């Protein structure tokens, strides 16, 4: 695990360096520093635990891309926290969040081309996506109301529901629509929360983000429920045991043999 520890230490150093650059350029305040450092500690702990569970000794090429994206997400988190506390403007947040969203399409390609796909990488990528959407929904909620938080909290609510309903952990079939909806969330929330659009257009973007996410989750939940019911029906169906009947030939006398040979 030595290599992984060094990689994590390098990532933590890069995160602190990014926070320092933001402090020097846009004047990151105490709230931003607190949020950024808390993100760094949380990322270290979660990544170490996931790597230990997966038995990984180091990060692969695609994981380094995801780690870079996570560092940018830490910067976005610091900027959002500072902005909501009356601090830094959002001019730097848009390019930072845009690069983080763009890199989401890169780590998967790197994993496929280098043949280094792993459960750790997939989990790291998914958790980074989910947290970025949560942070961006917090930003948009500051403008349009707390209902926008449903966008960022929906995935975590789904995970919590799966503890009580294990069938929600079932495997889902691949879906291009699910990927498109997931990618749209970040774009729409950045546009809605960063004042790039007029108020009504930003509100519409947030509504579209929530509506498409509800549709996507609802469709997947319905599919998983139907699959679960089908499994229960198959398990409760009576089993039919087919028995093979073996008929032993009876001895026959000469007349019977003579009659049988006359039949064509």
Automatic annotation (TrEMBL):
Belongs to the CDP-alcohol phosphatidyltransferase class-I family. InterPro entries: CDP-OH_P_trans, CDP-OH_PTrfase_TM_dom, CDP_ALCOHOL_P_TRANSF_CS. PROSITE patterns: CDP_ALCOHOL_P_TRANSF. Keywords: Membrane, Transferase, Transmembrane, Transmembrane helix. The chain crosses the membrane at residues 33-50, 203-222. The keyword Phosphoprotein does not apply. The keyword Transferase applies. This is CDP-alcohol phosphatidyltransferase family protein. It holds the Pfam family CDP-OH_P_transf. It comes from the Bacteria.
């Amino acid at each position: 695990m030595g290599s992984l520890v060094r990689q994590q230490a390098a990532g933590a150093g890069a995160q602190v360096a990014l926070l320092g650059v933001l402090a020097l350029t846009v004047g990151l305040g105490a709230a931003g520093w607190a949020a950024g450092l808390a993100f760094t500690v949380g990322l270290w702990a979660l990544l170490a635990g996931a790597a230990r569970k997966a038995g990984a000794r180091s990060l692969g090429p695609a994981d380094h891309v995801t780690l870079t994206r996570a560092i940018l997400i830490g910067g976005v988190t610091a900027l959002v926290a500072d902005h909501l506390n009356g601090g830094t403007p959002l001019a730097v947040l848009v390019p930072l969040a845009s690069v983080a969203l763009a890199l989401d399409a890169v780590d998967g390609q790197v994993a496929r081309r280098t043949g280094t796909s792993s459960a750790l990488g997939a989990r790291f990528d998914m958790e980074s996506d989910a947290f970025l959407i949560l942070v961006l929904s917090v930003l948009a909620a500051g403008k349009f109301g707390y209902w926008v938080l449903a966008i960022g909290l929906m995935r975590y609510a789904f995970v919590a529901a799966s503890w009580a309903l294990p069938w929600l952990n079932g495997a889902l079939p691949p879906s291009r629509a699910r990927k498109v909806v997931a990618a749209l969330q970040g774009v729409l929330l950045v546009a809605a929360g960063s004042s790039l659009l007029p108020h009504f257009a930003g509100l519409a973007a947030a509504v579209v983000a929530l509506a498409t996410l509800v549709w996507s989750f609802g469709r997947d939940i319905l599919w998983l429920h139907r699959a679960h019911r089908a499994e229960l029906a198959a398990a409760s169906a009576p089993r039919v045991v087919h028995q093979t009947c073996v008929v032993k030939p009876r001895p026959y006398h000469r007349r019977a043999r003579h009659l049988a040979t006359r039949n064509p």
